[in-house]
Amino acid sequence: MSLEQAISEQTREVKALVEVVKGKQSAIDARVQTKIGEMDQWMLVNTPEKRWVKDITIGGSTDKCYPVWWMGESPGEAGVTRINIGRPFNWNEDTRPLNKASAHQASLLLVLEQGDCAWGGGPTVFKYLHYAYVYNPTISHPSFSMYCKEYKLDNSKPSHNNVANGAFGQYCSVMSGLYLRGGGLKYRIIANRPLLNFGFHDGSGAERVIHTADHVNTRWEAEPIPFDADEAKRYCPAQTTRG
User: How many whole angstroms separate alpha carbon 62 and alpha carbon 110?
Assistant: First the structure.
């Protein structure tokens, strides 16, 4: 075989080998892309939603409920906030403030969705998804506009919305909230983002200033309210699960 023939034969073999490699490379690329897709799907399914978790203890008396408050965010910017407020039935089994004869004290489940506050400029959302309790009620007056007392900052000027000074009602246009039963009971609040301007009454002292608005001459204060099981039932949504 002449040199030219040998070179030509080797060239054909090289080209054939290149085609084999190209075919395998395509198969390898396809497998890699498949695995990347599978990994992306796995991450989507198995990556937990970001959560904000806050454990609080409400001291004071079991005969009173104490305020908890926060501010909603614009759903157009931040999306809807999902809030879970609850406690398992055996929390406080060591102190037993509600039932001395049993470790079963009180369970609570309240799940709601919120978007914006009453003074917000976008669509507002305050929707109860689930509510139930077992053994003893522990929650009262959940509201988009926080139940509280309204006061004038300057008594010589008009009140906001003609509300009588010191009147109690759904008056706070900025804060949402509710009242939780005291006596050393522990609660857990879980949300898919930190709750803005979150605050709670720990059971010590009297009122708390939850918001002040100079431009409308108003201060909103929340203080402990008497616990009444029938009243709490009237103000809370209907139970959606076993209670």
Answer: 19
